[in-house]
Amino acid sequence: MRSVNKKHCAFQNGFTLIELLTVAAIIGLLASVITLRVRKSQLDAYDSAIMQTFDALRSKAEIEHSENGSYSGICQETGGAAGNSILSATGDYANVNKNVKQNNGGVDVACNESSGSAAFAAWTPLRATSGTYWCVDSKFNSSKIAGQPPADSTQCP
Fold first, then answer.
1. Cβ distance 98 to 106 under 8 Å?
2. pLDDT in the model for residue 135
3. Are 114 and 83 in contact (CB under 8 A)?
4. Where is the chain membrane-spanning (predicted)?
5. CA of 49: how far to CAs of 3, 55, 56, 140, 156, in Å?
6. Which residues of the chain have pLDDT under 70?
């Protein structure tokens, strides 16, 4: 019978440095992937909130139009060239602007009424995709568009 050398059969306790570094690298990689996916989901949620708020804006504008026969008072001139307007700072429109600013990074809702207030369009930047905007108008268009509409636009492109 062979004798067993106890020195060679001794077990080592713990992990080697390479094993620990490998586990740490894998955990770091997984954490970064999850963080990126969570951030994308968060930006999509901001955009969804903007779109829902704009639906409320259009509904309010249509009520205004049916009661008064025009879209007057939706937009507020900010001075300068015609068309440099933001959403009105009064009543429900102020709340819409506040809600949108909380979700789009603090940018006022751009807005324009036609001469005689027969039509309007409003738009704001989205966060999930840089350079995209959400636009609603009095012709019942709601759309994601690439690039900002012209300042005097009363219809979504």
1. no
2. 94
3. no
4. 15-36
5. 75, 10, 11, 19, 19
6. 1-12, 78-84
